[in-house]
# Entry
Amino acid sequence: MAATGAHILVVEDENIVAKDIEHRLKALGYNVSALASSGEEALQKARDACPDLVLMDIRLKGAMDGVDTAEELRRQFNVPVVYLTAYADANTLQRAKVTQPFGYILKPFEERELYTCIEVALYKHQMERRLKESEQWWSRRRRWRGVPKGHGLSPDGILGSSVSQHVDRTTQWHH
# Structure
């Protein structure tokens, strides 16, 4: 398996488990940007290291658990989070879902499972970022050209009639 070389922040409160995850990630070709054992430490290390992805345990040392930390990471840094935890009870899963994780892996896990989940999460995050950038570009373009909001491309990618008319008027194009 050839990994992307992405930088990953590992948030795990058990040091021996964190070191094992770090070793596995390096063997898969990833860079471990930092290890953190608490939510507060994870936020600081994310600020310093700018990881591409965070592997997050749910039970952590300190005032913040992994779910609270994942929500803050998403809000502050827009970094994808994959939960890597032994907890799958209904309440924990419900809390975790609302943080919009990019994956949820139960311990113990296989390296292949970890690799697959990380690669899919990184790809999905990249595609979401590209889509958002494209939407922002079209929004700016629409404002620049004076096209009213809500007009533009139809779902199948064809220019709507109001846009076609606007383009005709501004470019003085005649059919």
User: Anything to note?
Assistant: DSSP finds six helices and five strands in the chain. The chain has a mean pLDDT of 86.
